[in-house]
Amino acid sequence: MSEYVLGTSDHELERLAFQQEVWGGVTERFLDRLHIREGARVLDAGCGPGFVVEALRARVEHAGRVVALDESPIWMAHIAALCGARGWRNVQLVQAKLESAALEPSSFDLVFARWVLSFVPDARDVFARLARALKPGGVIAIQDYNHEGISLFPESAGFRAVVRATRALYA
Question: Computed over its alpha carbons, how large is the radius of gyration of the chain?
Fold first, then answer.
């Protein structure tokens, strides 16, 4: 099984934890606007070390289920430890790549993906696979990067070249 593009080291876990500190409130407000109902079945697609799993779990409550899907055995082990330590019984772990995960059609009320589509080779294909996994009336919610706001002062030709290359990569 291949590794996450940015790795799964303790250093990466610290970086992701800091990123969660910075953006966690934005994610919480986004989830609030989705009005996730008690008892819902939710997929956290590309869940990483599970920083959003707890927020999703709290919203579906004990009657619901959160499926945490990620390709990294290290992130899956991290979430399994959290589930054990916190007594979470409504979290199902699925270790698989988004591009090939066996997702049952029409099986989720919500598919949530945060900071994932930027890292898959074919985001359109992954999006279509995730959309097929939605129940009728289900919601797909994506929180991802927007590199259009990258700036540096004072400006430099080198930095502008990096921004152009990053935008070309995402295009």
Answer: 17
For the cut 90, the answer to whether the pLDDT of residue 6 exceeds it is no
Q: Is 100 helix (H, G, I), strand (E, B) or coil?
A: coil
Tokens representing 47 are 């869940």
Residue located via tokens 């899907």? 69
> For the chain, what is the mean pLDDT?
89
**Residue of 59, 36, 43 lying closest to 108 (CA atoms):** 43
Predicted confidence at residue 134, as pLDDT, reads: 97
Q: Tokens in use for 11?
A: 């250093």
**pTM of the prediction?**
0.83
Closest to 125 measured CA to CA, from 149, 145, 100: 100
Kind plus residue range of the DSSP H or E element containing 42: strand 41-45
Query: What is the residue type of 118?
Result: S
